[in-house]
Amino acid sequence: MSKSLYHNICGEKKFSLLYKKHAQELGAFLYYKYGSALNPTDKVQDAFIKLWENCEKIIPEKAKSFLYTVANNLMLNAVKHQRVVFKHQEIKPKDYTNESPEFMLRKKEFLQRYEKALSNLKEEERVAFMLNKIEGKTHKEVGEILGITKKVAEHRIYSAFKKLKNQLDDLK
Known about the structure:
74% of the residues lie in helices and 0% in strands. By secondary structure, the chain is an all-alpha fold.
């Protein structure tokens, strides 16, 4: 029986160590991939609950992969649900502003182009770019969070920055 404990993560100590090691990184990963509107910390907790429920089937080497897969799937399900909610809701924008119509038009155009440019980036580039530029993580920290080397993180960030700059250059 004690031998089986070494082949899964059912022990309270092992599970606690897994939580301490991966919970924060997983939360940050979900936050930068999907934003805060869908409660990424809740999805992290749900992923760990699912891990605990299946602890006998999962070996320690596969736990991180399992967590990221489950958490990502939970977020994708939340995105699908959010689309349905938005479809059936009418969001009324405020009907007044102090900004000129020209400024509002340029702002709207820039935001649309920026969102499109971000969505055109590869997922790896977008996540690395947002971790670095929005969160202020260093290249080394980005690499650690994503499980890649510092050089790969630098390449992804600079590649994303270059693509965004090229796509938005005419809006100076």
